[in-house]
Amino acid sequence: MATFRHHRVTPWLLLAPQLAVVAIFFFWPAAQAMLQAFYVEDPFGLGRTFVAFENFARVLASAEYYRALGITVTFSVAVALGAMALALLLAVLADRVIKGAGAYKTLLVWPYAVAPAVAGVLWGFMLDPELGLVSAGLGALGIDWNHRLNGGQAMVLVVMASIWKQMSYNFVFFLAGLQAIPRSLLEAAAIDGAGPWRRFWTITFPLLSPTAFFLLVMNSVYAFFETFGTIDATTAGGPGGATRTLVYKVFEDGFIGYDLGASAAQSVLLMGLVGLLTLLQFRYLERKVQY
Amino acid sequence: MATLRLSALRKTYPNGFTALHGADLEIADGELIVVVGPSGCGKSTLLRMLAGLESISDGELVIDDRRVNELEPAQRDVAMVFQNYALYPHMSVADNMGYALKNRRVPKAERRRKVEETARLIGLEDLLDRRPKQLSGGQRQRVAMGRAIVREPRVFLFDEPLSNLDAKLRVQMRLEIRRLQKRLGVTAVYVTHDQVEAMTLADRLVVMNGGRIEQVGTPMHLYERPASRFVAGFIGSPAMNVLDARLEGDSLTLPCGTRLASPVPSPGEAKTVCLGIRPEHLSVVPEGDAIDGDLSVRVELVEPLGADTLVHARLEGQDDPVVARVDGIRAVAEGDSLALRPDAGRLHLFDPETGQRLDPLEPECQHSTFPA
Q1: What is the pLDDT of residues B240-284, one digit of tens each?
Q2: How do strand B155-159 and strand B78-81 relate by DSSP bridges?
Q3: Do B100 and A207 count as a contact with CB atoms less than 8 A apart?
Q4: Structural domain boundaries enclosing A86
Q5: A208-264 residue pLDDT tens
């Protein structure tokens, strides 16, 4: 035992680099944001005044904030469900492939390596009202696509781009989950008289539920925070704020509107919201997760 | 309750590997057939083809006069017990057992009644609310059995169901499977690599090797008249001794010079044969009492098993030691020289090239059917 006691400092030393990274890049900025939320600051950072909860009151009294909240909910639900459903479908299909399975899987994982902004530009190009191939095709079908003018279409665009980006991540987890299900279970179910559809919903899907739950948490966080780049590169929150999600509004108010206090208050609220959401998911959904 | 007919059933995988080279077998109603053989002999493939989990490449599978080659597993009305039990981990014992009934849209009340009835039959009534994770190996095995029984299928298929249990439980479950199968009267096909399990369970045994059926018959028939060297070596423990010998007229000569009367006279010229003698058909004779035809050996190893003792001995001119099973604890020590006397009526002769038995099998024994 004595030998172990001598090494009390060593574990901390070994952890130090990671702790330093977390402290400098996570805790410090988070603390700064918290602090800033209670001040009104001039755009150049020359002076600031303590205003207590005035920033929060202003944010919570603004109709724009609630509109952004509504947009965020729509966007997040669409992205999380869409990305998970499509990834599950692809994973089920890829799980059946025998020949060239490696190539399929690699191709399906690739989009994850594409930067959010690049993904946004890519989708923006395909659906560009003047130049886009897809929008030209849609035009031929009688659909007038212009996400620069049509808020609904702009939302569809950012949702699609965000889903495309996140799908690969979900795909990897679903595929691993599927491959962890023993074949004999599905064979037993087949002998027990369940067709492919029933087998999927009564055996495969419940057994994937721990994976699905984990992905739901990850996808919610993704939709709330990490879609900024995609939105910025495609619609920049427009037209007329139709795709301005909470995280985009934080950026707009802070770095375009130079209202640093309100921006900080919003990011604190957002942080609280995601924390609450995750907590709810853990409390109510995890119980229903099978075995 | 059903009869099964397998005609030239064949399985060839897309990569060209043939796992089953045409199996022919008729299974009577209520019969318990045990398919036994070493790993890779095609026995599991055969079972999976019966279940519909593997497609049939060629030949015909008939259940109750109906060709089922193309039917899905669900439509064949067979139940299977898997080696790893394949219990649904997210369902309770009751739901596991009721799953097939639910799929068949059996009303809830009836489903419940049937599950409870079956649970009582196999002693699971207190565990119906548990999840598989909360059960011991033996209990899981029971649930797997219950899941098969509750459906009242036409055929039970067992894929090495006892191989994950400890030795004691295995013996107990073996008896229980036999008891339940006879009580329910359901035709059953049971795959195992354990020859003791095979011998004790089977109405008829099917011995497989290299994707082919070597012999079909009652356990005692296979023990007494193995059709090939392979069956002779596989059925019975310890395995049959196989000695090189020369057959000339009606006498056999061993390389050590010992001469024995041949059970199969050969009118032609002298030929090499394999002589099979089971360890239990060799008795120890004190050296002074040895007569013509006794094997003079030198004891290499003695294994006392309690009820009987295995004597491993070296016979001149043979590569492998000869094993004799003798009663109780005999005063035999390593290094002793003694004589082993073969039971003259229980010698087996095999062709050294084909491995086939030399004396013709009686026709009625080749396809002995279970008495209805």
Answers
A1: 999 988 888 888 888 888 888 888 877 777 888 999 999 999 988
A2: parallel
A3: no
A4: 47-288
A5: 988 888 888 889 888 888 888 888 888 887 787 788 888 888 888 877 877 778 888
Instruction: Supply the CATH number for residue A141's domain.
Output: 1.10.3720.10
Chain B nearest-CA distance from A87, in A, is 23
Whether chain B has a CB inside 8 Å of the CB on A210: the answer is: no
Pairing of strands B187-192, B155-159: parallel
Q: Which domains can be identified in chain B, with CATH numbers?
A: 4-234 (3.40.50.300), 241-280+291-356 (no CATH)
CB B68, CB B55: distance < 8 Å? no
The ipTM, to two decimals, is: 0.80
Chain Cα centroid distance, residue A181: 27
Look up residue A196 and give its two tokens.
Answer: 């492919």
What φ, ψ does residue B233 adopt, rounded to 5°? -75, -30
**Residue B251, exposed/middle/buried by CB under 10 A (0-12, 13-18, 19+)?**
middle
Whether the CB of B63 is below 8 Å from some CB of chain A: the reply is no
State both tokens at B307. Answer: 């009820």
Q: Dump the DSSP string for B315-346.
A: ETT-SSPEEEEEES--S--TT-EEEEEE-GGG
C-beta atoms of B90 and A290 within 8 A: yes
Cβ-nearest to A188 among B52, B82, B131: B82
Question: pTM of the entire structure?
Answer: 0.78
Which residue type occupies B55?
Answer: S
